[in-house]
Amino acid sequence: MSDRPPNPYTIAALARLVLADRARDTVDEALRLVPTLDDDQRTAQELLLQALRVRSHVDKLVEAAVLHARESGSDWTGIAVAIGIRTESVAERWLPQEQRWHAGLAHPLRHEPGAELPELTIPQAAYAPEDYAHDLDGWAGRHLDPVESERWRERGLDATRPVSGGLARAGDADAGDP
């Protein structure tokens, strides 16, 4: 068993990591629609269903972006302006998810009576952040263009850590959570 803290990042960094993970999932789902090689074996309805899976992932991505915005100090009004809807609508739509997020951070595992294993109450990326950050570093490294890597190097950052290198760790002097 590791002696590292389960969540070494700030809460805002955890939210950013979840956002990165949701973005990767969305891209991976969307990429399944790009190749045409097997179109003679896939129906138009199957492609439509895949597009709907992408939309479902986009919804999760937007939710993660809203949670990250909140953890980074944005108020509901600022989020509403960015989205282009009323503040009340934004809060009604995403406040329950924000409350579940905070409850999950406080108690990441829920034990249901009769269940063999506990249920995870937060996204896996927030539960195992070091593993997900490392995995996302590799994924992003394979997908980012060389110009992006060069931008990291110009800033004196490790281009092999395009995700984890930008996440604030808990306890960093300048990484205060809101």
3D architecture notes:
This protein is an all-alpha fold and 178 residues long. Helix content is 59%, strand content 2%. It is built from seven helices and two strands. It has a two-stranded antiparallel sheet with strand order 1-2. A hairpin with an 8-residue loop joins strand 1 and strand 2. Helix 1 crosses helix 6 and helix 2 (44-71) crosses helix 4 (87-106). The radius of gyration is 19 Å and the shape is globular. The two termini are 31 Å apart. Residues 1-5 have low confidence and may be disordered.
Give the proportion of residues in helices.
55-70%
Structural class: mainly alpha
Number of helices: 7
First-last Cα distance: 31 Å
Beta percentage is under 5%
Average pLDDT confidence is 91
Shape: globular
- Low-confidence runs of at least 5 consecutive residues: 1-5
Please give the order of strands in the largest beta sheet. Answer: 1-2
Main sheet: strands, sense, barrel: 2 strands, antiparallel
- H/E element string? HHHHEEHHH
Beta strand count:
2
Please tell me how large the radius of gyration is. 19 Å
Give a quick rundown of the structure.
With 178 residues, this protein is an all-alpha fold.
Question: How do the strands and helices of this protein lay out in sequence?
Answer:
Blueprint: H1 11-31, H2 44-71, H3 76-83, H4 87-106, E1 109-110, E2 119-120, H5 124-127, H6 129-143, H7 146-154
Antiparallel strand pairs: 1-2
